[in-house]
Amino acid sequence: MTGLYANTIRETASQLDAVMGLSAPSRAPSQRFRREGRAGYLFLAPSLLFFTVFLILPSFFAIFLSLSQWGGYDLTQITFIGVKNYSDILSFDGTFVSPILVNTLVFAALSVVLAVAGSLLVAQCIERLRFQGFWRFLYFLPVVATVVAIGNVWKMMYQPSGLINGLLNALHINSVGFLSDPKIALPSVAVVQAWASIGAAVLILTAGIKAIDRTVYEAAEIDGANSWQSFWGITLPLLRPSLLFVFITQCIAGLQSFALIIVMTKDGGPVNSTNVAAFEMYQQAFKFGAWGTASAMAMALFVIIFIITLVQLWVSRRAGDDD
Predict the structure, then answer these.
(1) Radius of gyration from C-alpha coordinates of the chain
(2) What gap in Å lies between CA 83 and CA 67, rounded to an integer?
(3) Cα–Cα distance between 307 and 305 in angstroms, integer?
(4) Which of 3, 112, 188, 190 gives 178 a disulfide partner, CB atoms 3.0 to 4.6 angstroms apart?
(5) CA-to-CA distance for 142 and 136, rounded, in angstroms?
(6) Predicted confidence (pLDDT) per residue in 210-240, tens digit
């Protein structure tokens, strides 16, 4: 019995030694991970502070203002009025739903279609040319230029005595009031928006085209596919991630655009034909002092952009699943 007890004590001691021996090293990594975590949060603190001060807090303040009435500057004059701002702007008797929101969606759709189609065409052409870096740089120049410069140049070109009407007159076509005719003023500005944003899309699409394996095109050529068939069967499907990014960014830019409207039309005219949501927000806040109404419009535009982005992502994923 004494020997049995001694063996039991020795086994228990050895198990305790094993446990103690394993627990000490296990505590060391966990302490190291905690120290590294604290160091990581310390390095992230400036970015998190900037993100909180300049994005999160203003977003919550904008939501609060959309439920309030405020003339600006004096925070003590903020009056909570509930959803009255939303009921006012979303009423069909007002001008925000029509023509402003309608103009915004039409403007975004036109600029997105023109920019994506144009950038895809330019990217395909550049891929077949020499000195590709030079051509990409050339098409990227409008992105570097300011909106004021671009708007004023195109405004002069759209004038009755401008370059475009001069070319039309040379072809025995009457001058067109690009910015004075309510029917074509919005498409005219959308063309400028698309032209100014093609450069960034070209860079993205050319990078996507270069990422496609050349052997895929060689195999298609061996099978007898022509250039058009290779474009539809290879380039477009494999460019889907790049095209999705371009679609989303161009759509957001089109829905948020207002600087070009100010430069080219000054007041969203003629007859509100070029007045878009972002420009109306600017006028409500800084011209009329209706910060609550402007914030409600901003929230409505945010919801529209969010829904459109989700729809684009959903359609892209469904198309990918079908493939």
Answers:
(1) 30
(2) 6
(3) 6
(4) 188
(5) 11
(6) 888 888 888 888 888 888 888 888 888 889 8
